[in-house]
Amino acid sequence: MLSPLAQARTAPVQAGAAATPKLLVDGLTKRYGAITALEPTRLEVPAGEFLTLLGPSGSGKTTLLQMICGLVEPSGGRILIDGQDETRTPVHKRDIGLVFQHYALFPHLTVAENIGFPLRMRGVAPADLTRRVTEALEMVHLGHLAGRFPKELSGGQQQRVALARCFVYQPSVILMDEPLGALDKKLREHMQYEIKRLHRETGATIIYVTHDQEEALAMSDRICLMNHARIEQLGTPHDIYARPKTAFAADFIGVSNIFRGQVRRDGSGAPMLVTGNGSFRLSADTPDRPDGALVVRPEQLDIDGDGDNEVRGEVVDTVYAGSETRVLVSLGGEETITVRLRRGTAPPRLGEVVAVRWRADAGVLVS
Amino acid sequence: MSAATLNHDGAFAAARRRLRFGPLWLAAPGLAFLAIFFLFPVLRLLGLSVQDLETSAWTGDHYARIVATDVYFRVLMSTFRIAGLTALLSLLFGYPLAYWLAQLPERQRGLAILAVMVPFWTSYLVKTFAWMVILGRTGVINQILSGTGMPSLPLLHNEFGVMAGMVHAMLPLAVLTMLPVMTTIDRRLVQAAETLGAPPANAFWLVYFQLSLPGVAAAGLLTFISSLGFFIVPALLGGPQQTMLAQLIITQIQEMLNWAFAGALATFMLVAALVTCWVYDRLFGLSSLSGESSGRTGAGQGHLRSAGMKILSALAKASTALGAPVGHALGPKMMDRLLPLYSAAVIVFLVAPALVVVPIAFTTSPFLDFPPPGYGLEWFRVYFNSDLWVSATIRSFAVAFATAILATLVAGLAALALARSSSRWRGAIFAFFLAPMIVPRIVIAVGLFYLFAQIGLVATDLGLIIGHTVLALPFAFVAISAVVKGHDWRLDQAAATLGANRFRTLMLVTVPLIRGGLVAAFLFAFITSFDELTVAIFVSGGVKTTLPKQMWDDMILQLNPTLAAVSVVVFAIVMALLLMAEWLRRPAR
């Protein structure tokens, strides 16, 4: 049931919004007894957006997804699609498509019958149904497999059938629950392009769940990073990568070097972070806060190069990854930092003591 | 992956929420049916046993009479003796066969299991008739003996005859109960034990045997309980010394109309069955009967456990000591063949008797000579020209068909309800649906007879259908539950997200996918009813007789080759249905 408070909160939003969002999740929450699977959450998704719910296991992303499609009943809050309250609408009457983690293709139906199933449920005339199924099959390049049973298809082909079965009835919102989780790395990358293409061609609104940060960065218009049953940060991939708001966000997306410490001002009023590894200059636009974590990405670090800040350490490992080489530098004790080696530089020897430097404006101070 | 756990939690909560008006109600028809036609009549019968005949006052007289009267007390004792011996021998003979079946590659195992399924589903009447033909004074064995100039042996109407018939009847049940437990034992554990230094005998007794114990106990439980209520075998193959409780109950009802005394006898049987169940539950947990792990297995109580371990160690030592010289004498090649040879012998013992009946059905002699003097179709002609036999056959078909539909429908709804329910009543309801398998049939039959007599269902087809449905429900329920357990409920969720409502999801997704289980349930229920004698003895009769009842009446009066012809027809029908059920039970495509 909707609390008066929640109603009061949403009222001005509806009045003030220029365009109604395709999907509005408002104060949505889910509790299982004493366990909270999702704290009250607000999320707006404009039409045609590709939004990714990203987070570690148990962060609440799947719960949020399942509540949006109606498989799990919320403990509170509302779900609006095109401005219509759908919170209590039964699953089969919601205009939503869900691509399951393990595809959930009907094993007793052929590929064409699987794709035709949602159309049959909507009473589409047989001739129209056949045409649309054929179109959907063409869209995923599976026209030649219409008469096969799911069991006779490879994992990638099954995935395409699941996608076609979802796109064929053009639901308002398409939800995808780790759809590529069961595929190997190469096929997964290929299917990422396929899904992006389908998104471009159909203009569908897609909410995509994954725990793979590379997948999220590669595919999304916006990423909704989740942790501990709530939204940690919401923004474009570049936003989240370049300007993480928390140490968790910095750590979860990409590789980060994090130094924790107290913020001080030097004589000229420039901000400094005093850490166990020394004092570092912070970028001038750093917001005022007493302490924080300084995030510096590996590609912003330079071995024996220029920079405002410096740490010294011993090279403990170099990792060659094809397109780049990473150097692990031990700062003593458990602490290591990761440095991406500049192109054309020879990697340092193991055991060599090096100076790692970076510019003050390269780091981001987060909570 | 917590997405999976959340999924599960989601389903869990959803199930709990729907409980108010949701799936558990699907079990309601079955619960009501069993309450009226199973629980109530059985309790009523127990009530009768403590009532005075005239005054209806509470009395323990009937029980005192059983214990005080020597004849009755001896019957009680011989019932427990025969049932106990049958269970013991079935386990001893069955264990190696089950062990052999469990280690076969899957494809061959399927075929070999059929060799156990066939005798399991063969009518008790046909099997018993076959033993009469084999063991009789002029039967197969004695003919062979006299042919070689040896004196004939008294094989029938004594303890030997009963034990042969009983063990033959119960062995398949024992094997089929032990097998699922054995196939789930990871054989690598035995290999692990051997790499850790255990001689083969220790690896077997201390690892494999211990892991197979729940199956052994379940088999012992089921064979003992089923044997308790037996009357066909002791009545036809035994003598007065082998009279069992069920025979006494039938006499009390049919000849004396002494309900109270029959009730007291039935109570003894029921209490024995329930006590056995209770002991089993304490040791292993009843849920392991249906193949679910109870978590209690192996974690037995301290003293019992260490005593058991000592016994097993002693057994391991003994078999090492015994095995070494035997192995030496036979050579390694022969040792490897010992188990297959033994298993083949047991399978012959199981299958051969029913096959002996076939030539006799085609005999030209009016007697049960073996081998027949000539072959013809005379006795089939007698069968098909007899109004009595034909109408009994038709009635049996009709009743079995109705029973199969009713049982499949009721059990199907209940299995679907329980599969997705997380209610704390789930276990109790599950047990209730299996209960007609645990309570001896004779107890159910007598209880139903009393109820039917009051509401005018005696000698009606409806009465038969109701009685048979009670007995068939557990089989149908187990068959459907097994398939539903493997059903992927995410497919139903998928159907819902694609726009299918509950009913269409059920009809277009769930039912087609569990179809194999439904058909198997239908056929098992059909066979159960087609074969059923206990309820039919009381509820059918005169012009309303069923095929098994007609066979029973003939077998008690006089043996004749028509019975062989009928047996062959019954055997062929049941086999055809069984093969169909097995074939359909395999996953589609």
UniProtKB/TrEMBL annotation, chain A:
Key word Nucleotide-binding present in the record?
yes
Kindly state which keywords UniProt assigns to this record, in alphabetical order: ATP-binding, Nucleotide-binding, Plasmid, Transport
- GO CC annotations? ATP-binding cassette (ABC) transporter complex
Write one Pfam family the protein is assigned to. TOBE_2
Domain ABC transporter, residue spans: 23-253
Write one Gene Ontology MF term: ATP hydrolysis activity
Q: Which GO annotations describe the biological process of this protein?
A: quaternary ammonium group transport
The highest taxon in the source lineage is Bacteria
Q: Name the PANTHER family for this protein.
A: SPERMIDINE/PUTRESCINE IMPORT ATP-BINDING PROTEIN POTA (PTHR42781), SPERMIDINE_PUTRESCINE IMPORT ATP-BINDING PROTEIN POTA (PTHR42781:SF4)
Task: Report what the protein is called.
Answer: Polyamine ABC transporter ATP-binding protein
Q: Which species? A: Azospirillum brasilense
